[in-house]
């Protein structure tokens, strides 16, 4: 029997403690309120182009225990990242990389078929995950033997450790584990290619900043600068 095509659109609905605060946050980042109600239950809808975010009010929501998430697929992650970072800078005077809210930088992720992506974590702890749309069927993420198909960009042990650290921190939000993993890899592989060491020190600097360790971030930036000087 033929299955009829569905003319449908699925929209994620995320929890928030205050729909007005959520509206202020996302309109600052470039979205528009398309619907709002306060009674009988708080509800908010926002959108821009093909992006639609819906929120429902939830009293006593703890951001640390919130597992709300949704995905946004785009042809190129950079324009949307620029829009969001401009809004964040205007609202907070900086690009927040730690705490709530925060945003990650677009990076290729081995657990997402090597596609570029970034995340916005909103004030209530919801993760809005932005990913580049696969250009070919070969780029589509897949699972093999019930496990994610890890697509590495190649390189030595330090490069692979960096890929693992990116997945830990940018996909799962466990910056402390990513920091330990990458610090250990840098100590074990001092003879890694300069480009790999430079990339690893750069990401370690960002992880240190996210964790609030400014001196460690500065030391990592200094090490990255030394690597870059070697390549000149």
Q: Could you explain the architecture of this structure?
A:
- There is one protein chain.
- The longest helix has 18 residues, at 214-231.
- A hairpin with a 5-residue loop joins strand 2 (32-37) and strand 3.
- The N and C termini lie far apart (66 Å).
- The strands form 3 sheets. Strands 5, 6, 7, 8 and 9 form a 5-stranded mixed sheet that branches.
- Helix 3 packs parallel to helix 5.
- The chain has helices spanning 19-28, 77-92, 157-172, 175-188, 194-210, 214-231; strands spanning 13-16, 32-37, 43-48, 51-57, 69-74, 102-103, 107-108, 116-121, 127-132, 143-144, 147-148.
- The model has no long low-confidence stretch (mean pLDDT 94).
- By secondary structure, the chain is an alpha+beta fold.
- The radius of gyration is 20 Å and the shape is globular.
Quick description:
This protein has 232 residues and is α+β, with helices and mostly antiparallel strands. The chain is 39% helix and 21% strand.
CA-to-CA gap between the ends? 66 Å
DSSP strand (E) fraction? 15-25%
Helical coverage, percent range: 25-40%
Tell me, what's the shape? globular
Give the biggest sheet: 5 strands, mixed
Q: Which class of secondary structure composition applies to the elements? A: alpha+beta
